[in-house]
Amino acid sequence: MSAISNRPVLVGVDGSPVALAALRWAAVDAARRTVPLHLIYAIGVLGDFGSGFELGQFDFDSYRQGGLDALETARATATSESAPIAELEITTELVDAPPIPVLRDRSKAARLLVLGTHGLGAINRRLLGSVSTALARHAACPVAVIPGTAAPPDGPVVVGVDGSRSSVHAIEIAFDEAAFRGVELVAVHTWSGFLRFESSDQMQAEGEELLSRSIAGFGEKYPQVPVHRIVTEDRPAERLLLIGHKAQLIVVGSHGRGGFAGMTLGSVGQSVLHAAEVPVIIARSARACGTVESGARRGG
């Protein structure tokens, strides 16, 4: 097995219910792909408290033991969740450092970073955890952000397409995910007539041509994946959320055609990430984590 194909699925653990939901999702994903699962609990004592806090006031040993207990619970949960699929190689790591830089660094050797979210619907959508938000912007591999609620088990995989390089990586991930799940892929492209002088028919035709060109070749690579194409006038994030509310997964690029070199997360990705109530994968740089393997198995 190549070094890239054996890269682990990486999970941030903190003992919370939303983190356990993300862990269950990650354990199933790793078991299906027969890759290792690496669990990290980052204590981050020195980064979590203000200047008025004295370390003498803090029972470090108890806090560290809490992290070890959370990792053991996570290991047991992942083992139980993956057992019906395959035996899973699980490693754990307790780190005395803040979680964001630790997970960002470990993501350089991961195929996927999986995190939970504290989003609880429309009222609390802005409460997406700071760790999840930061790593969706800065991780060195694709980032999956998993809500506490279960996604429809028979729903499609939805991907946003805009013709950018980041969009191409998102399409590849989406085809691979749809193949593993044995479900339909819904490829969505939206256009806007704002500050455009072409007719609606012409812009629709241009959008259809862009979508066809963007997914060309993936049908041959993933012949088992049926594809439903949607091209329409709309705002991209709104359309993705509308179509994706019954999906298993939404995949978006880290930034779109309006992005620039070094941009961390585009407005569409950010809007979908904060509002979606199903799992979302942000297609971070493929160069940092390797390309998605082909030959996916159906089912599961």
Q: How would you characterize the largest beta sheet?
A: 10 strands, mixed
What is the number of beta strands?
10
Please provide the ordered H/E string of secondary-structure elements: EHEHHEHEHEEHEHHEHEHEH
User: Mean pLDDT, as a whole number?
Assistant: 82
Give Rg in angstroms: 20 Å
End-to-end C-alpha gap: 22 Å
Structural commentary:
The protein has 300 residues and is of the alpha/beta class. Helices cover 40% and strands 17% of the residues. The protein contains 11 helices and 10 strands. The protein has helices at residues 17-33, 45-48, 60-82, 99-106, 130-138, 165-181, 200-215, 218-221, 236-244, 267-275, 286-289, and strands spanning 9-12, 37-42, 90-95, 112-116, 143-146, 157-160, 185-191, 227-233, 249-253, 280-283. Strands 3-2-1-4-5-10-9-6-7-8 form a 10-stranded mixed β-sheet, with helices on both faces. Strand 6, helix 6 (165-181) and strand 7 (185-191) form a beta-alpha-beta unit. Helix 4 (99-106) packs parallel to helix 5 and helix 9 runs parallel beside helix 10. The longest helix is centred in the N-terminal third of the chain and has 23 residues, at 60-82. It starts with 8 loop residues before the first strand and ends in an 11-residue tail after the last helix. The model is unreliable at 46-51, 119-128, 256-264 and 286-300 (pLDDT under 50).
Summarize the helices and strands and which ones pair or pack.
Elements: E1 9-12, H1 17-33, E2 37-42, H2 45-48, H3 60-82, E3 90-95, H4 99-106, E4 112-116, H5 130-138, E5 143-146, E6 157-160, H6 165-181, E7 185-191, H7 200-215, H8 218-221, E8 227-233, H9 236-244, E9 249-253, H10 267-275, E10 280-283, H11 286-289
Parallel strand pairs: 1-2, 1-4, 2-3, 4-5, 6-7, 6-9, 7-8, 9-10
Antiparallel strand pairs: 5-10
